[in-house]
From TrEMBL:
<dbReference type="GO" id="GO:0000160">
    <property type="term" value="P:phosphorelay signal transduction system"/>
</dbReference>
<keyword id="KW-0804">Transcription</keyword>
<keyword id="KW-0805">Transcription regulation</keyword>
<keyword id="KW-0238">DNA-binding</keyword>
<keyword id="KW-0902">Two-component regulatory system</keyword>
<comment type="function">
    <text>Member of the two-component regulatory system RegB/RegA. Involved in transactivating anaerobic expression of the photosynthetic apparatus. It is a transcriptional regulator that is responsible for activating expression of the puf, puh, and puc operons in response to a decrease in oxygen tension.</text>
</comment>
<keyword id="KW-0597">Phosphoprotein</keyword>
<dbReference type="InterPro" id="IPR047772">
    <property type="entry name" value="ActR_PrrA_rreg"/>
</dbReference>
<keyword id="KW-0010">Activator</keyword>
<dbReference type="GO" id="GO:0003677">
    <property type="term" value="F:DNA binding"/>
</dbReference>
<dbReference type="InterPro" id="IPR011006">
    <property type="entry name" value="CheY-like_superfamily"/>
</dbReference>
<dbReference type="Pfam" id="PF00072">
    <property type="entry name" value="Response_reg"/>
</dbReference>
<feature type="domain" description="Response regulatory">
    <location>
        <begin position="13"/>
        <end position="127"/>
    </location>
</feature>
<dbReference type="InterPro" id="IPR001789">
    <property type="entry name" value="Sig_transdc_resp-reg_receiver"/>
</dbReference>
<protein>
    <recommendedName>
        <fullName>Photosynthetic apparatus regulatory protein RegA</fullName>
    </recommendedName>
</protein>
<dbReference type="InterPro" id="IPR050595">
    <property type="entry name" value="Bact_response_regulator"/>
</dbReference>
<feature type="modified residue" description="4-aspartylphosphate">
    <location>
        <position position="62"/>
    </location>
</feature>
Length: 183
């Protein structure tokens, strides 16, 4: 048994809410190995239903889901179980969103891609303890690339619309999309 498992406490229930199915499965397995009793939801509706029926001691919610905002799930959990520790994940780290997440009741806010160790540290941090900074944080180039990819996907892979929304020239965007992702 690892130290992390011993720090969890008696109630090890953990709700994971994310619409990225592959990420959700990987994270669920990793968190189970760390001693959590994991339940998963792929949407805001499913997350709210689980949070209402079985409010978890811990939760990890993606901010942007196909059917809405992950903060709606955070609100339900906070109502049903005020002592729950909640981490909000997002692909775009904006200060305004982080403030909103914490005001609504999130314990911490992490940018994707966060690994299971970062998430566990954030969930188990107590009081004024802050989890250590990530070992391998994303480079600024990678953050920019991730943001561009997300907007591109949200625009149904329409280069012209993505370029307009990002306020960038279409050819510049095409060159960025043609390259591999930065490390």
């Amino acid at each position: 048994m690892t130290d992390e498992v011993q720090d969890i406490g008696e109630d090890r229930s953990l709700l994971l809410v994310d619409d990225d199915e592959a990420f959700l499965k990987r994270l669920a397995k990793a968190m189970e190995k760390r001693g959590f009793e994991v339940e998963t939801a792929g949407s805001v509706a499913a997350g709210r239903a689980i949070a209402t029926a079985r409010p978890p001691a811990y939760a990890v919610c993606d901010l942007r889901l196909e059917d809405g905002n992950g903060l709606d799930v955070v609100e339900v959990i906070r109502e049903k179980r005020p002592d729950s520790r909640i981490v909000v994940l997002t692909g775009y780290g904006a200060i305004a969103t982080a403030v909103a997440a914490v005001k609504i009741g999130a314990t911490d806010y992490l940018s994707k891609p966060a690994d299971a160790t970062d998430i566990t540290n954030a969930l188990l941090a107590t009081g004024a303890d802050l989890p250590p900074p990530p070992e391998n944080p994303m480079s600024a180039d990678r953050v920019r690339w991730e943001h561009i990819q997300r907007v591109y996907e949200l625009c149904d892979r329409n280069v012209s619309e993505t370029a307009r929304r990002l306020n960038m020239h279409r050819r510049t965007l095409q060159r960025i999309l043609a390259k591999r992702s930065p490390k």
